[in-house]
Known about the structure:
The structure holds two protein chains of two kinds.
Chain A: H1 2-5, H2 13-39, H3 44-51, H4 54-87, H5 93-100, H6 102-105, H7 108-119, H8 126-129, H9 140-165, H10 168-176, H11 181-210, H12 213-219, H13 229-238, H14 242-272
Helix pairs in contact in A: 2-14, 4-9, 4-11, 7-9, 7-12, 9-11, 9-12, 10-11, 11-14, 13-14
Chain B: E1 3-12, E2 15-25, E3 30-34, H1 41-49, E4 56-61, E5 64-65, E6 76-79, H2 91-100, H3 110-123, H4 139-152, E7 157-161, H5 169-186, E8 189-194, H6 197-203, E9 206-211, E10 214-219, H7 221-226, H8 231-237, E11 241-248, E12 251-254, E13 257-260, E14 265-272, E15 277-280, E16 289-297, E17 302-309, E18 315-321, H9 322-328, E19 335-340, E20 344-347
Parallel strand pairs in B: 3-8, 3-9, 6-7, 7-8
Antiparallel strand pairs in B: 1-2, 1-4, 4-5, 9-10, 11-12, 11-14, 12-13, 14-20, 15-19, 16-17, 16-19, 17-18
Helix pairs in contact in B: 2-3, 2-4, 3-4
Amino acid sequence: MSSSQKSNVLPGFGLSLGFTIFYLSLVVLIPLSAVFIKTATLSWAEFWETVTTPRVIQSYKLSFGASALSALINGLFGFIVSWVLVRYRFPGKKIIDAIVDLPFALPTAVAGIALTAVYSKNGWIGSLIEPLGIKVAFTRLGVLLALTFIGLPFVVRTIQPVLEDLEIEFEEAAASLGASRWQTIRKIIFPAVFPALLTGVAMSFARALGEYGSVVFISGNMPMKTEITPLLIITKLEQYDTAGATAIAVVMLVSSFSLLLLINLLQAWRARR
Amino acid sequence: MSIEAKNISKTFGSFTALNDVSIQFPSGKLVALLGPSGSGKTTLLRIIAGLEVADKGSVYFEGEHATERSAKDRRVGFVFQHYALFRHMSVFENVAFGLNVKPRETRPSKEEIHERVMKLLKLVQLDWLADRRPSQLSGGQRQRVALARALAVEPKVLLLDEPFGALDAKVRKELRRWLRRLHDEIHVTSIFVTHDVDEALEVADEIVVMNAGRIEQIGTPDRVYEHPANSFVYHFLGNVNLFHTRIHDGQAHFANQTFDVQADSGAALVHARPHDIELSREETGGGWMRACIRYVHAIGPLVRIELIQADNQQIIEAELSRERYAEQRFATGEMVSVRPRQVKVFPAGPAAGDYSI
């Protein structure tokens, strides 16, 4: 009886929520839970030992550190790229717009090989900067470069629509009120774009954490130096140590989930304020 | 502060927005830039504000050359049609913005800013909404906040771009009367753009009628309405009945009257407002034309009657007061005599009735 009174102006909530949970379970949760189940075959001590060996710890540091740094770099330069794409008209704009999506479309291994070729000692850029003492290929800098390459489109594509919606009137209003260009960017444009920027940076970060294909080529995979965590997982799998691989995967999973959740909460908090 | 624009021209691609426009805005007046869309009124306003750069010509503030000055340095308050309030700031922060971005040496103290903002919010009767976000306000309230924000920096000129254009009819009327009272209080030189004739006639001290990038007439509302300079102005300010006649030796004859026209020969158009059309059953002859009533629309304060002239099938529109209509009871299909009480005669030119809103 009471259910008839609870009719909603947007019917179908029950059905669509049911579908959402079912779909997410099928595609995301069930495969991921297998990771946890497999890990559970290890004892607590074994698990702890596996995920805290110095080599693994080093890889966390590199993976999380380089991912975070690449996301920040993308945040800055992605902002500039989307600004240029939205605000100015110039010949070749459509081409540049399309180039931004290339990291999305390119098989990551191709990106890795290309980057390695360009930045290695004999490559176009590598041969120019190596004499200056800057080594990119087979160093941590190379890892950072590959992760930055992979993450750029996420930032640009999340900021772009927000910038497009940000009417030029706001800037004109700020200018007529006596604000300098820098003040306008800092006080008007940046706050408006910030939530999208945060989302873009978070997505770029998440993408970088999971990246494997491009990094393995340029990093050289030197233990304790340029090994990323996904590489260690693959290494363990190749040694038929499935439980060990899933144990490390669990650590990555939990920590990246916590980080993304934190960013979401931060955004919700900002939106409410 | 007085403003002068000299020989301003501006094109957007192949479209000429302003064509060699020169105009002076006297100090302390509330001036309306009136014209149809595309007449260049907003462009002129934006050039004065420094938000647009003229292709040719110069702008003077108080006799001083200001063409090169950026919008930031012009000390102009600008109010946008869609308010352009900063969404992530409260009403208070919006109004305080102009004060907060001043360089440290000239920036008032925090207390002073607070005091000034609250005073302005009181002036626009919104001090009780200081902590709200713009999204929580109605359109009329938003526009008042925008006005307070523009006034906060003590501009020498206030420029308003269709300030009431996005509001509904009732709020629009209230707000324009409020603007008039506000202007009587603060006397800052103000220019507002509108395509609403009633708004311009009711609010402005002076009206500038613009069309196709040129100024057609400048004058008080009274002057512009009673003595339109040309056919365009006449058309733009209200409904028109047109009658054709010819000019001989600088004079046109119509309905037993003679009018001086600014042309030696050619066709002339006699303009008459619908409310100046007289209807009669009895009168015939001198100056009266026969017409057949086609349609009577008797809703609202005025009764609108549409007639067809008997000799040339031209449509005439007449407006009668309710009382007059009640006396006479004209009916559809009836033949009556009509005569314009008051007319203006202009030489027929390309300007006559060739625009649409």
